[in-house]
Design goal:
Layout: H1 2-5, H2 10-14, H3 43-54, H4 62-74, E1 77-81, H5 88-99, E2 103-107, H6 114-118, E3 119-124, E4 129-134, E5 141-145, H7 152-155, H8 159-164, E6 166-169, E7 172-175, E8 181-186, H9 199-202, E9 205-210, H10 216-227, H11 249-257, H12 263-277, E10 282-284, H13 288-304, H14 312-323, E11 328-329, H15 331-335, H16 340-350
Parallel strand pairs: 1-8, 1-9, 2-5, 5-8
Antiparallel strand pairs: 3-4, 6-7, 10-11
Helix pairs in contact: 3-4, 4-13, 11-13, 12-13, 13-14, 14-16
């Protein structure tokens, strides 16, 4: 536990009789950032407006919409997994329009090269100089469609950009726009010709969302919208109105930073992370980075739900999308039918919820 709290021992940290050992340093005071005229006043109001605009294009998928808002406010990337035709790409395109940021889509294929994503230096014979031709990575919101269909060499082109918000081309570093968000999709079936994402790259995604089929009522609503003239290929038919400008985002992120997390709730996060590392069904449990991510996403969830403090229910809600792609199951447990979500649920049930 030295990586999370310094010198105190694990017993000191987890002991309710010694809460001082767990108390973190005081967080710096963040001043509110001015918002543009017409922007929602709070993160909760922003979330309501985003959901309203998103549902002009996407029917249902409440968990997907809420989780995407959390990813934006927490400053992380998101991986969407679902069968074709469940509005994954449509959701990301709608989000880009709602946030009014530059958008680029890359269809990942086996012959895609890193330079197709990052860009390349091109020699200009007139000026006798090299000029950078920027790739689609320089967009505010990047849709990496079917990211597992390209070889690891090309997948690795995303690693530096997702973690450090910059790219290196021909030895020169280039900053990416702010905000910068990667939304990747992958198909959970038809694994022939795919390249599973390595754990190091999966860990760069803050959240992984499983996108399911709509309910019968929602599916009929989809058909009614298409009959009325909506076309997913043309978002103008959805009449989406931008909810904010990209420059407003730091103000809402500062609000998320001000959300309080009591020491007992922090201890709850640590217990969850450590329980996954000790689970007999797992070869690899949650890392300290996963615990930090669970903290940050829970703060964002609390903010969009109108609270300035995190509850254990926020932790439980975010545990599945934060942890499911960071756990590596033992082969024998997979054969027995265990999944990451099932293990996470068992872990949550085994730990006493703080009061």
């Amino acid at each position: 536990m030295s990586d999370l709290s310094g010198s105190p021992s694990e017993q000191d940290i987890l002991s309710p009789q010694n809460p001082v050992a767990f108390a973190p340093p005081a967080a710096p005071t963040l001043e509110p950032t001015a918002l543009s005229v017409g922007a929602p006043a709070t993160a909760a109001q922003l979330a309501t407006r985003i959901a309203t605009e998103m549902h002009k294009a996407v029917v249902g998928q409440e968990e997907l919409v809420e989780t995407m808002i959390v990813a934006v406010l927490a400053g992380g990337h998101i991986l969407l997994e679902g069968v074709p035709g469940t509005a994954k790409t449509l959701s990301v395109r709608a989000l880009a329009r709602i946030f009014n940021v530059s958008f680029a889509r890359i269809q990942f294929t086996p012959d895609l090269m890193p330079s197709d994503i990052l860009g390349t230096s091109i020699f200009d014979p007139r000026s006798q100089e090299f000029h950078l031709k920027k790739g689609p990575i320089f967009a505010g919101l990047l849709l990496a469609d079917e990211v597992n269909r390209t070889p690891p060499k090309t997948q690795s082109a995303l690693l530096e950009s997702m973690e450090e918000r910059r790219v290196t081309i021909d030895g020169v570093s280039h900053a990416l726009p702010e905000p910068f968000l990667v939304c990747a999709t992958q198909n959970p079936i038809e694994y022939e010709g795919t390249y599973p994402l390595p754990e190091a790259q999966l860990d760069r995604f803050m959240l992984k969302v499983l996108v399911n089929y709509p309910s019968p009522e929602e599916e009929q609503n989809i058909l009614a919208r298409v009959q009325a003239g909506f076309r997913a290929q043309n978002l103008d038919t959805a009449d989406i109105t931008p909810a904010l400008q990209g420059g407003d985002l730091p103000g809402y992120r500062a609000e998320v930073e001000r959300v309080r997390v009591e020491p007992s709730v922090q201890r709850y996060i640590v217990q969850i992370a450590r329980a996954t590392r000790e689970n007999r069904h797992l070869m690899l449990g949650a890392s300290p980075r996963a615990a930090i991510t669970l903290l940050m996403t829970s703060k964002a969830l609390a903010a969009i739900r109108g609270r300035d403090f995190v509850t254990p229910d926020d932790i439980k809600t975010m545990a599945h999308p934060v942890l499911r792609h960071r756990l590596v199951l033992r082969p024998e447990s997979e054969i027995e039918g265990f999944t990451g979500d099932r293990i996470i649920e068992n872990v949550l049930q085994s730990i006493e919820v703080p009061r």
